[in-house]
Amino acid sequence: MSFATAARFARRELRGGVHGFRIFIACLALGVAAIAGVGSVRTAIEAGLTDQGAVLLGGDAQAEFTYRFATEEELAWLEGISTEVSAVTDFRSMATVSRDGETERGLTQVKSVDDAYPLLGEMVLDPPMPLSQALDGGELPGAVMAPVLADRLGLAPGDKFRLGTQEFTLSAVILREPDDAGDGFGLGPRTLVRTADLEGSGLLAPGSLYESEYRLLLPPGSDLDALKTEAAERYREGGIRWRDSRNGAPGIARFVERLGRFLVLVGLSGLAVGGIGVSAAVRAYLARKTSVIATLRTLGASRNTIFLTYFLQIGALSLVGIALGLVLGAGIPLLFGPLIASALPVPINITLYPAPLAEAALYGVLTALLFTLWPLARTEEVRAATLFRDALDSARGLPAKRYVFATLALLLMLVGAATLFSGDRKITLWTAAGLIGALIILTFAATGIRWLAQRAAPLSRGRPALRWALSAIGGPRETAASVVLSLGLGLTVLAAIGQIDGNLRASISRDLPEVAPSYFFVDIQPDQIDGFRARLAGDPAVSRVDTAPMLRGVLTLINGRDAREVAGGHWVVRGDRGITYAAQPDERTKVTAGEWWPEDYSGPPQVSFAAEEAEEIGLKLGDEITLNILGRDIAATITSFREVDFSTAGIGFVMSLNPTALAGAPHTWISTVYAEPQAEAAILRDLANAYPNITAIRVRDAIDRVSELLEGVAGAIRWGAAATLLTGFLVLIGAASAGEAARSYEAAVLKTLGASRARILQSFALRSALLGAAAGVVALVAGILAGWAVSHFLMETEFDVMWGSALGIIFGGALATLLAGLGFAWRPLSARPARVLRARE
């Protein structure tokens, strides 16, 4: 028989409709829709960032300097290549309000601008007015600020506040800032003033922590790559950092890309759950087609023809499910486009994007092939005579070797595609390993549950409902495997996320009071450090004060080679880093290799490097690194490695140099203060009054800000896990539906023997609840293992089992299975025994 014959048989079978395949189609559609939807939204955001890159950046290109403004030569070059230049300065400070003898302070991210700002976009203020008018003010310079900061300080337009030693009048609050997304993460709300009005405020003194940014409008047709290369070659020694409109908001772009990758991986776990439902649906369908297959074999149909018949039929239904998923994945973002756009702080271009849809379709095809090939292949191992009795249950455990190899090849292709499209090989491979490991654990668990049920059934004499339930779970036809695998995998993903999220929150709340300082002070001038220390030295509420000089510099070369080439994308070589100096290490510094320089050392520059970061980059003792600090290149030899723990929120520098290496370089000091909570307000008040230029960052507030971001990420991931769980519930419904005929026969036999409907229903309910609880327990074990691995290896935090989340998983598993089981129990209970038993004959 030919392929055409198999296709004709498949077409005739499909005329009977999709009964029995609704869950099959729904599982595929939901998994594909989740991946397509996430990919479409991610692509829409990336397209919006690209299209609006110049507005987000504030110009066609930007040159950025740390700790300094551009020199006359650098400014002349920037003006020569552009049609217009706007200079912007960005730094942190304290906004101070005095009223009725009391002073309130709030951390703010200050942006000081010139008259040309903004080059692109529009600043929207309340009350409405041009930005130039708002910054003119009246008797005092004007300022605008974010509404949240104005509310916190109790300010209204016309009120006065202070930055450093300079007073300002609040003219308006900011409703929309055109380039806020391109400015990156800030610990405080925005305040915007003119740079010229900060003269004499003490905030932009030599060594203070600020960044100067020069936004450029370029002539049409400018070669951005050529300008970037020229800037690097011409002013590499000056520490220039160049960015153009193709990457207007790099922080947001990286965040969206990484979150999108992770959500796609969560979506793949949903497809894996759906795949179990697909496999179960195919198996149940082929079991119902025993007589048809037997008839075909009797009439001379070959194994290949039978396989092709049902392969084509199920393939066509798979394409329907995938197509439906693509329609949903593309249509939902289009339908809710305005709502999505209003909820995001970045521009988004929502339309149809072929790439994410093609990616989702590929995942759907590979998943359908992977989970249908095995049950389809097993039909070849069944003889025609046994097909009339028990088609698939009489087949041997493994199909022919070629199908085993094909299954492994499909699995490798699916993992390879996920690795290729995610862009993060390590996370993808670990996720794939985790899913496969969870499936193996759940498979063995399903076998173990059936074995335990068989052993426990004889022990439950006197409790007929429990005994019937245990016998059914341990029986050969029970759906224990489908329930444990489908619901268990969905609950495993949810349990792992719950454990990770709970431990992250617990780590923050547990560790903060013990190790974190109360305040982090920056921009302390050298002539202020002695008075700063004196105020804290006699305070009994202060347990510890750490101070250190600080500069910022860029690691440009490693052994004469470009640092980015040597270190790849390591965070130490991305942008500028804090650098300090010390004649001798303090008592808490632990040198792990090499030796510290002598206290009176005055030779060539030497540097002590953080041991962990050095190992990650591949540095060794004797290597030479070149740092660009305030436009000056300093080549230093690595003479020691030391332990640096950044998790304490205290002072930590990757690089510490000998003092003479930085002699004469303008710098400021930083300090961490550990104090009793009740003394924090007085400490801030005294130090801010004495030194208005310093900036105090309350560490608890900073961690709360980070926690808010983490909550947003966790929320998105929980929604992805919920979709996985929904797929698992659909598989449960499919398993319950497939077992309806068996339960009808069982109920008929029990009724004939005198069992009441209530007791039969109780048996069905116990069966479902026990299976769900068992799936929840197994999923909890797998989820705890996954949560421990992520907490221990990735986050490097302590791990404790979150029992509230754990018990919720078990209860949820039992409830979900109970609802699915009871939903398909009423019809078997209402069926007349005589009709069911007569039909069985």
From TrEMBL:
<dbReference type="InterPro" id="IPR003838">
    <property type="entry name" value="ABC3_permease_C"/>
</dbReference>
<feature type="domain" description="ABC3 transporter permease C-terminal">
    <location>
        <begin position="266"/>
        <end position="378"/>
    </location>
</feature>
<feature type="domain" description="MacB-like periplasmic core">
    <location>
        <begin position="25"/>
        <end position="231"/>
    </location>
</feature>
<feature type="transmembrane region" description="Helical">
    <location>
        <begin position="21"/>
        <end position="41"/>
    </location>
</feature>
<feature type="transmembrane region" description="Helical">
    <location>
        <begin position="262"/>
        <end position="286"/>
    </location>
</feature>
<keyword id="KW-0812">Transmembrane</keyword>
<dbReference type="InterPro" id="IPR038766">
    <property type="entry name" value="Membrane_comp_ABC_pdt"/>
</dbReference>
<feature type="transmembrane region" description="Helical">
    <location>
        <begin position="403"/>
        <end position="421"/>
    </location>
</feature>
<feature type="transmembrane region" description="Helical">
    <location>
        <begin position="307"/>
        <end position="340"/>
    </location>
</feature>
<feature type="domain" description="ABC3 transporter permease C-terminal">
    <location>
        <begin position="722"/>
        <end position="829"/>
    </location>
</feature>
<keyword id="KW-1133">Transmembrane helix</keyword>
<dbReference type="GO" id="GO:0005886">
    <property type="term" value="C:plasma membrane"/>
</dbReference>
<dbReference type="Pfam" id="PF12704">
    <property type="entry name" value="MacB_PCD"/>
</dbReference>
<dbReference type="Pfam" id="PF02687">
    <property type="entry name" value="FtsX"/>
</dbReference>
<keyword id="KW-0472">Membrane</keyword>
<feature type="transmembrane region" description="Helical">
    <location>
        <begin position="769"/>
        <end position="790"/>
    </location>
</feature>
<feature type="transmembrane region" description="Helical">
    <location>
        <begin position="360"/>
        <end position="377"/>
    </location>
</feature>
<feature type="transmembrane region" description="Helical">
    <location>
        <begin position="802"/>
        <end position="826"/>
    </location>
</feature>
<feature type="transmembrane region" description="Helical">
    <location>
        <begin position="427"/>
        <end position="453"/>
    </location>
</feature>
<protein>
    <submittedName>
        <fullName>Putative ABC transport system permease protein</fullName>
    </submittedName>
</protein>
<dbReference type="InterPro" id="IPR025857">
    <property type="entry name" value="MacB_PCD"/>
</dbReference>
<keyword id="KW-1003">Cell membrane</keyword>
